[in-house]
Amino acid sequence: MGQCNDSYSAIKVALALADAFDCSVNDLPLTLVLSWYEQKAVCILLTLLSLGIRNMYLGPTLPAFMSETVVKYLVDTYNLQPITAPEQDMDAILKRG
User: Order of strands, edge to edge, in the sheet holding 81-82?
Assistant: First the structure.
């Protein structure tokens, strides 16, 4: 949906779609890529995790405070996917369907 400042709008749209289709946000065929360029992304990520949003992509580099243990927990619990280069990431996303 654009800038990270649009995250609230993306959440509202996803919640409305889930309500319209009588399912959870995680059941929708949506992909959320949280680009990590500024510290405000921490708040956005924590908000999404607190809402139980799963299957997000985070990158292109992970925040320095995320230890290997934290990343493993987020991957295992929320299926958070670290991303790298756009070409590799698009290939991976398309293969997952």
Answer: 32-35, 56-59, 81-82
